[in-house]
Design brief:
Nucleotidyltransferase, domain 5; 5-stranded mixed sheet
Length: 308
């Protein structure tokens, strides 16, 4: 009999449900509790263990399960809630959530993807930290514009400190990439495309390791740049992008803004769309999609960008 386990991850507890036996158990979300969880699931031998992404609390759980070679996959919480609504389960408790997650795995059987290695996780954390610092710096600069004279000096000091932190984070990222010949080679390759800068290249390296390994449709869907149909009967709705990895789209958006001005291929493509009556935002999204496909082909064939 095939078993499917669902784990609802909270800050302090791990609620587990194993189907179709409907075996329920709770563990503490600490080192001892996670070890007990591994022993518990190791005896039951589920073919799939499903967790929701839980703001970082899921990471130690996934790591300990993966180290024991247990088949674990992390799912977007929105998918779980949509599944729960579709099955008529509107109530929400940790116990109910664990069973819903197990049923999700049992019915849909999501694909298990290899976990990121330690270096990739570290690079991803460095990039996320730099993004957080940039956001805080922007917020402080906005506050400075309307700040009263009594607090302006304090905000200016904080802005100077945040600026130094952003610079240090950028240096840490550059130094870390330089230590890896493979990443250094990929970064240099991506930056041959006019419009991709050091931050964008690092973001793509860390957050889109599938670049160059998937076909054009799959890589676009993964980044959230695949147009989705909105059709019903004779009605043909406007195609829109949806889902995917927001930070990857943000990096590609900044790349598209630059490329639409300085990259001759993307500039001509953007202007052609504008002359055809497309809104600037729609045209930029199309440029993001095109840039992603170009980068995917460049990495797959290990070929630098050439506009000819």
């Amino acid at each position: 009999m095939e078993r499917f386990a669902g784990i609802d991850v909270a800050k302090e507890t791990l609620d587990v449900c194993v189907r179709p036996d409907t075996i329920r158990k709770q563990f503490s979300n600490n080192e001892e509790g996670r070890s007990n969880l591994v022993r518990f699931l190791g005896k039951l031998k589920p073919v799939l263990i499903v967790l929701e992404a839980s703001g970082g609390y899921d990471i130690p759980v996934v790591e300990v399960l993966a180290l024991r070679l247990l088949p674990v996959v992390v799912i977007n919480p929105r998918q779980i809630r949509d599944f729960a609504k579709a099955t008529g389960k509107l109530a929400k408790t940790d116990t109910i959530d664990a069973e819903i997650i197990a049923r999700f795995g049992e019915v849909l059987r999501p694909e298990i993807r290899p976990l990121k290695d330690t270096d990739t996780q570290r690079l991803q954390a460095l990039i996320a930290r730099r993004r957080q610092l940039v956001q805080m710096l922007t917020e402080e600069k906005n506050r400075l514009q309307i700040a009263s004279s009594w607090i302006r000096e304090d905000i200016e000091v904080h802005i100077a400190w945040l600026t130094s932190c952003v610079d240090k984070a950028g240096k840490d990222i550059r130094d870390f990439i330089k230590k890896s010949p493979l990443w250094r080679e990929k970064e240099n390759l991506l930056r041959t495309f006019k419009g991709i800068g050091p931050v964008n290249a690092c973001t793509l390296l860390a957050r889109l390791p599938e670049l160059g390994r998937l076909d054009r449709k799959k890589i676009a869907a993964l980044a959230g740049l695949a147009p989705m149909n909105r059709d019903s009967g004779k009605y043909r709705g406007r195609r829109t992008i949806f889902g995917g990895r927001a930070d990857v789209r943000a990096a590609l958006y900044m790349a598209a803004l630059t490329a639409a001005v300085h990259n001759p291929v993307i500039k001509a493509f953007y202007q052609r769309l504008i002359h055809a009556g497309k809104l600037p935002k729609v045209a930029l999204t199309a440029c993001m999609h095109k840039i992603l496909l170009i980068l995917n082909a460049m990495v797959r064939t290990n070929t630098p960008w050439c506009a000819a």
